[in-house]
């Protein structure tokens, strides 16, 4: 510590200037001495140049974002394209600013690159997950399989009835993507999950989607009657499209029920859960009105007499 103070005092004594020339401050000399102890011959002029480069980089980034937003009103460029372009340019400006600042400070960039390469080999295994998410973020920004504002599902909707892994994309960052669920919850999803897994993007392609509503009835039910009721319920709902018309499929003869599917097209996937709920309400009401039974799982249990091998009898025997 004493050596540091002596070096600072020596530098201050060597750099004293006349009052007419704004001279070097004590703080600047201390910073310069500290950088010299780290092996960097940095003058106050270089520090001022580095600060100027940082300010220019921040100003350039701000002006670019402002220009993109100002031209968004009368432009036909999609919002997701503007978002991706802004992110990529900001990352490029940040990298360029860092390189220029290091050059202004007199840092040997080649030596840093060699050291970073050796360090990268050592940390590669420990940081491979972060690196994978970083590269995946760039892929999402350039390839755009998902875009800001898209509605996505991270799992099959049938396995996620509460929509806990379903929502709107709000931001695509370098490491993770931000998704807002219908319950106003925020999911932070690693970018690699969007690249390495199967994702349902409800917003790409046609806005129409087809619902598949599973219904089970008892074995004593009339299949023609069940088909008619399901079609009537599908056609009566205001959220179901008339073209293509609803369909009914007899899908399976299960253990305790005859299973049907009502297939109906809707125009707005955001109303999917609400329309499914309305259809179920109407179907149950129509089934009860016409005497159609919705079964529940049943099992018949037979007990055998261990001595005779015949079914055991209950109650008093003669």
Characterization of this structure:
The chain is α+β, with helices and mostly antiparallel strands and 318 residues long. The chain folds into 3 domains: 25-123, no CATH class; 144-201, Roll (SH3 type barrels); 209-289, Alpha-Beta Plaits (2-Layer Sandwich), CATH 3.30.70. The protein is built from 9 helices and 8 strands. It has helices at residues 2-14, 26-37, 44-70, 79-104, 109-123, 128-143, 191-196, 223-236, 272-289, and strands at residues 151-153, 166-172, 176-180, 186-190, 200-201, 209-217, 247-253, 258-266. The strands form 2 sheets. It has a 5-stranded antiparallel sheet with strand order 4-3-2-1-5. A 3-stranded antiparallel sheet has the order 6-8-7, covered by helices on one side. The protein starts with a helix and ends in a 29-residue tail after the last helix. The model is unreliable at 15-24 (pLDDT under 50).
How many β-strand stretches? 8
The residue-averaged pLDDT reads 76
Intertermini distance: 108 Å
Separate helix tally: 9
Structural class: alpha+beta
Kindly state the percentage of residues in helix.
40-55%
Order of helices and strands: HHHHHHEEEEHEEHEEH
Whole-number tally of structural domains: 3
Morphology call: elongated
* Cα radius of gyration in angstroms: 35 Å
Sheet with the most strands: spatial strand order:
4-3-2-1-5
* Largest sheet: number of strands, sense, barrel closure: 5 strands, antiparallel
Given as residue ranges, the uncertain stretches (5+ residues, pLDDT < 50) are 15-24
Determine the strand fraction and express it as a percent band. Answer: 5-15%
